[in-house]
Structures are given as structure tokens and as C-alpha cells.
Amino acid sequence: MTDIARIKAALRAQRIETPSWAFGNSGTRFKVFAQEAVPRNAYEKVDDAATVHRFTGIAPSVALHIPWDHVANYADLSKHASDAGIRIGAINPNVFQEDDYRLGSVCNPDPNVRRKALDHLLDCVEIGVTTGSTILSLWFADGTNYPGQDSVRARQDRLAEALAATYAAMPERMRMLLEYKLFEPSFYTMDVPDWGTSYLHCLALGDRAQVLVDTGHHAPGTNIEFIVALLLRAGRLGGFHFNSRFYADDDLMVGAADPFQLFRIMHEIVQAGALDAAADVAFMLDQCHNIEPKIPAMIRSVLNVQEATAKALLVDADALRAAQQSGDVLGANAVLMDAFNTDVRPILAELREEMGIDPDPIAAYRRSGHHQRLVAERQGGSQAGWGA
Ligand code: LRH
Ligand code: MN
After folding, report:
1. Is 251 in the pocket of ligand 1 (CB under 6 A)?
2. Closest Cα to atom 6 of ligand 1
3. Beta strands 143-144 and 189-190: pairing type?
4. Which residue of 179, 195, 335, 347 could cross-link 139, Cys pair, CB 3.0 to 4.6 Å?
5. Per-residue pLDDT at 375
6. Does the beta carbon of 225 lie inside 6 Å of ligand 1?
7. DSSP per residue over 6-49, as a string?
8. Which pLDDT score, from 0 to 100, does residue 386 have?
9. Residue among 286, 290, 386 whose CB has most ligand 1 atoms within 8 A, to mutate
10. What pLDDT is stored for residue 2 in this prediction?
11. Is the whole-model pTM more than 0.85?
12. Contact at 8 Å (CB) between 265 and 225?
């Protein structure tokens, strides 16, 4: 197989999961801007995710967030998704938006609040069973704001207890991804602040517990691809929440703020053979399109990951290894920069034609008039959003 054929085959097999919540209204504490054509329920969010798949060909699943995507019948929602050509992906419990969770959810000093939070996690396991999901994706806003507010150790014990009970309730085909975040909404400690804390809990739980790397959840200047390489080596990289940022957890379009970082991350993925479906790394987006139209922003984001992946697949691995082993610092760096500086848009346009989709998905979406149709259809009702 020629190099180009090998690269195209890998790109054709790429799978990127979109987040239902990115199609709803979102914003900051200053303002959540309402936009036209925004979905009003989980069914319409699934429709928008299916639209992104239709125009990109590589986004065949959508993650749900509960209760933002609460429906009366999850089996029916799952059927709606498959009728639209996609499937329900990761299930994200939400234990960060009720007054009871002021001092935390599973780490809360109050056992009644911990029980309530655990019950929600267990409900989400059941939802995952109904939708055929294989991923329970956990993120906790839990933490403290002032030194002394609570015992760091006691909170870790509480967290471990809730994770163990949830892990035990998951069917064999389901795995748990534990997401970490340096800060926000807690500002002194987060109970899962970094990859190490997540990794330690995963080790304690079992093989079906893995670390979720959200690219917006690190201190500025963190070498995220180093963490990725380390977790891959340890066999505990469960997946990503891709987005980009200039400062904090900005949740901007992946690759928009730092396409070179995204390329370096995908380089570690490709070098480790973790692009293959067998590696089971979940490539998911987690973004908020506060001011830009959401469906084209999602299409653009999927394309940004695809472009970074194509560049990473272009790295001449033999030349790189030879330069690395001979201590040719500049040579080795040049091999990587050659790939990064290669315009992969022609290869991707060709691939899309071979996949039977428009070579320029963004232009195709604009030409489709889909947005105007949604504006006309989605009159009335209340638009979906974070409801924070
Ligand atoms: C937290 C987070 C987490 C979600 C939320 C939508 O910042 O990244 O993954 O549940 O965003
Ligand atoms: Mn996230």
C-alpha cells in the first residue's frame, strides 16, 4: 500500500464524537447569547450531530449530558439517532448544577448529598445500558475554595468510594473515563485536578477505568502531548475532550488557538498506533460556541482534528527514528516540521470525494440552506442551553 493509500485508509477510519451540549446556547457568567435555529431538545441536538456527520463523514456518534439531554424514552432517542445515521456515544452525568452540590457532589461532607450524587451516576449507567453506550464519562466540579475548608484526604476517600460503587454497577462492555481539571468552578482545590489524580483512581478501580484528557484543563504551558504519551504507555488513555484555549477553559474550537499543539498530540497518538480503533481511544469534542453558529463551528472543528491527524500521519517515521537515534536534533525536528508544514487540504478533498461527500464541507453546508431551514422549523419552544 502506498503511503497516501495508507494515510487515506487511516483517515477514512477516523471517528470523532460530537457533544450534544455544543449545539445548545452557551456562554460565560457574563452572558449566554441566544442564537437562531438552536435545538430545543435532545432529539434536535441529535439531528444537528447527524448533520455534522453528513458533511464530514467521520462524526458518527454524539455524547449526551444528563439531565441536559433528559428524555422520557432513551431507547427511542437511540433509535432516532440510528435513523439519522449516527449513534449515542458517551454518557456524561451532571452533578454540578444543583444547590445541594454547593460543597461538592460525591466528595460532599454530607452523606445524603453523596448518596444523591451516586444515585445520579448509577442512573446514568442505566441510561448507557439503554442507549448501547460503552463510555460513562465522569467530570466532577467538586473541590474547595479556601484552605482548611475541608480535608483533602477525606474528600479523596469519598471520591474513591463513589467511583468504586459506580464501577461495580457498570456492565462489562462499559468503561469509565475520569476527567481532570486544574481549576473552575473550584478555585483552591479540585478533587480531580490533574492526570495523576485521575490515573491513581483508575488504577485503584480496574482496567475499565481510564483517564480523559480535556485539552482545556491544564495550567498554561503544560506539555499535554507528554501526558498523552505517558498515559498511552501506561495503557490508560481513555480519550479526549478536544477544544482549544488562549487562557483558561475557553472551550474554543479545537485547533483554533494552537493548531501546532493539536498536531503534536496527534503525532503522539499516531506514533503509538493509537489511531487504530483497536486502541479504543475516544476522540471526543467538548466545546461551547458562545458567539459563532454552532453546526458550522462543529464541522470546522472535526476538520481541524482531521487535518492535524493527516499531518501526523505524514511524519516520516523511519527518518525521524534515524535522526533521533543519531542525535541529529535539528534533523529530527525538521522531519516533524515538514509534516506540520505540509498542506494536507488537497489529500483531504480527494479523500472526501472518494467517501462520496463534498470536498469542502463548510462551503457545502453554506450552500445547502440547512441553516435557513432550521430557522424556519425551530420557531417557538425554549432553546436548549446549559441552564446554569
Ligand atoms: C468541564 C467540562 C466537562 C463537562 C463540561 C461540559 O469543564 O469540560 O467535560 O461535563 O465541560
Ligand atoms: Mn470536558
Report:
1. no
2. 286
3. antiparallel
4. 179
5. 97
6. no
7. HHHHHHHT---EEEGGGGSB-B-SS-B---TT--SSHHHHHHHH
8. 80
9. 286
10. 76
11. yes
12. yes
